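User: Second chain of the day. Same drill as before.
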Amino acid sequence: MITIRPPSEADNTRADYASTGLTLGRHPIALLRPILQRRRAITARELHEKPHGSRVRACGLITMRQRPMTASGTIFLTLEDETGFVNAVIWPRLFEKQRAEILAASVLAVDGVLETDGDVHHLIASRVHDFSFLADGLTSKSRDFC
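Assistant: Same format as last time:
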């Protein structure tokens, strides 16, 4: 007799994203949070509590990539985690250096310096890391305007 194991929470999340592009369960990044904490990634909520000029690493699903014609080659990324959104700014020099990671990743960690003006927070990237392998099999699509 063959025993089939019931699907795990991660299996259900992958199936939800494959069929609908979202889940009613926990956010996929929440499932990765223990690993991301060991890799020094903070949540969007924690990032918004940090002071201007803080060096941080944030990680999330890429929900949007934008490269406006008026931005001189600058890329704007929106990362989403279980606590909210992070707006990351990728200068042209970094984009040319890490183009493959920036364009191919579905889960991206961004190291950089936090710029804050009132309630507006931007993470100015100094380096990115493709962490898509942590969410193996997750089909997450971003809206790309590049």
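DSSP finds five helices and six strands in the chain.

User: Great, on to the next one.
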